Amino acid sequence: xxxxxxxxxxxxxxxxxxxxxxxxxxxxxxxxxxxxxxxxxxxxxxxxxxxxxxxxxxxxxxxxxxxxxxxxxxxxxxxxxxxxxxxxxxxxxxxxxxxxxxxxxxxxxxxxxxxxxxxxxxxxxxxxxxxxxxxxxxxxxxxxxxxxxxxxxxxxxxxxxxxxxxxxxxxxxxxxxxxxxxxxxxxxxxxxxxxxxxxxxxxxxxxxxxxxxxxxxxxxxxxxxxxxxxxxxxxxxxxxxxxxxxxxxxxxxxxxxxxxxxxxxxxxxxxxxxxxxxxxxx
Length: 282
What we know:
Order of helices and strands: EHEHEHEHEEHEEHEEEEHEEHH
Number of strands: 14
Shape: globular
Oligomer: single chain
Strand order of the largest sheet: 5-14-13-10-11-12
């Protein structure tokens, strides 16, 4: 019997709408509520406050958190209560230690992939150490997505200028000049497929920029195994893994815990929404 699912997160994203469409086709109860509404209606003890859909919060079997943003810590407190009440929380890591940072990748325990040399650092510390870095490098905000807050930095002066307006911890990552990367989607330990994402132009270093060519990827055994391990090490069930191959070795750039999949479905023909709904509600 299918389980009742409550989605808590970004309600207007294309991925959310696709999940709603697929749930309807599979006759799965899939209600959607924003993190703000959930935070305001969650009692924290009895799980009996009615949400905006008039369904009792306690009536669901699965609670699916996505796109939490600055409400991450508050949502985790509620996820802990849900898990203690015997409810299933997606992702499995969430009620334990929270979502892992998307930009930080756990090293492979089986030497199946390499990780990009990276440093999580405060802006003040990065400014002090700016002269000692090898350039170019990539500056990322830890909560950035779709290329937002991602900058290619060419010099110490440019790094200092970019950090002048922020007090948030950032990630500095070694820059690799690649023509394309590969997004691999993993659901429940199963690789759904891959998508090559090409840079929009030779001057553009981001493969996620609008206008770049997208081509369905034929994944190698090494890429598949690397993606599965990287996701498992993060304690995730549903994730997008960004990677490239250099020197015969798979390199993992990011493990994204809230992957958008509109473009992936369009170019690969894989019904990602169906796979997710079947997995979480089966």
